[in-house]
Structure formats: C-alpha cells, structure tokens
Amino acid sequence: MKLMIVEDEQRARRGLKNIILTLSSDHEIIAEASNGKDALELIKTLKPDAVFTDIRMPYMDGLTLIREVRNLGMETKFVIISAYEEFEYARQAMTLGVTQYLVKPLIMEDIEEALEGLDKKETRKKESEEGGLTRRYPDAHPLVLRALKLIETRYSQTLNQRDLAAELGISPEYFSSLFSKNVGESFVRFLRNYRIEIAKSLYCHSDISREEVPYKVGFLDEKYYSRVFKEVTGMSVGEYIRENKQRMP
C-alpha cells in the first residue's frame, strides 16, 4: 500500500515514517509534505492509497485538505493525527470518510492499529468491487449504474440528488425518475437504506465503536440516525447489537 505523510513538524514526520517502516514492509512511504497545499498537489499527482495527516498546518489544514481531495472524486483513505482531542474535529473527520482519528503523542500500537484498519478497508473495497451494488441491478440504465458506484464510494459523505445529477450531466428531475424506475425506490430512500445496511455490517464485523458508526455511514445527527435505524430494521441499535451478538459464534 502506498502511503503519504503530511505533518508540519519535521521531527514528528520522521518519527511516524520510521514507525511505519518498522512495523510493515507492505507499506511504502511515497511522499511527505509539510502543509496541506503542497500535499494536495502531491496527492493529485502520485495518488497514494492512504494519507496520514495532521490537522493544524500552515496554508491549508488537514480537514480542508481532505475536503479538497473528496471534491476531486478521489477515494484516498485518510488517518487524522492531531494534538487536539475535541470531539468536533473527530466528528468532522468521520463525515469525510476518515479511517481513524489518532491523538498525539503517538505510540507504536496506535500506528499499528491504523495500518490494520487501512488494510481491512482496502480488503472491503476489493470485495465491494467484486460484488457491489451494480451486480444487484445488472440491467439498470448506464447512468443509474454510475450513480450506484458513486453511492458505494461516497455513502459516508454528504450526498444529495441534485449534486449527483449534476455530476452525471442530467437534471435532478430526470435523475429522480430514472433512478426510481430502475431501482424500484427513490434515491433518498435507497441511500438511507444502504447506509443502514453498511451500519449493520459495521456493528457485526468491525471494531468501530457504536458511537462512531452513524458518522461513518454519513449521518450528521445521532438521534436522527437512531430513528431511521429503527424505522428500517424494526429495532433499536441496542436491540440489534444484542440480538446479533447472541447469534455470532
């Protein structure tokens, strides 16, 4: 896996690099940057699989960097590193599809856990590509198939019908009609149900905390997420977790 480190402190940057190289020979550091502005240009050129980035940096902070990369449609994975342990940073990072949020000072176990998380995410991505939503609707219109692929890669981010239609080069009204006709339900309902589907999988097959899951699947409000989860599944989050833990070996 090709990695990149973005950190304005040279000593911290060198330390992180040494830890990663010590832990694994399967991860290659292909670039380093001391600020978000330079990092963005390197990411566009080198296309790393994952980026470890600080939040507070000159010229462009880490969260802005991630937003800019997402606006380019790139699927680069991110691990946030910060000395600031406020929940607001973590919440914003989750909505941007960040793999993990690490707090300084880092220890080797933190980095090892982050690398394992990146590897798991890459594995899930490959499995999704081999199956995925498009296999559920093989006869769908090509534009709908493109929309389904975008949903698979961006479900954890802010995603609405109008922006998606614009990206596909059609009107929101035509997109809405086309999607409903091919999939059998509205885009809004489909996206909501798909996010809950992913959430159910995270509860059963990941070590992500219960509190993080709503933000990992694209919800910005935990209370609203809880209402939607119960509406879709017929049970509360707690009931679902308890029932499925009893079924798991």
What would you note in describing this structure?
This protein has 249 residues and is of the alpha/beta class. It folds into two domains: 2-128, Rossmann fold; 132-247, Orthogonal Bundle (Arc Repressor Mutant, subunit A), CATH 1.10.10. Helix content is 60%, strand content 10%. It contains 13 helices and five strands. Strands 2-1-3-4-5 form a five-stranded parallel sheet, sandwiched between helices. Helix 2 runs parallel beside helix 3 (62-71). It is globular and about 55 Å long.
Order of strands, widest sheet? 2-1-3-4-5
Helix percent band: 55-70%
Write down how many β-strands occur, each being a DSSP E stretch of 2 or more residues.
5
Unreliably modeled segments: none
**Shape call:** globular
Proportion of residues in extended strands: 5-15%
What is the makeup of the main sheet? 5 strands, parallel
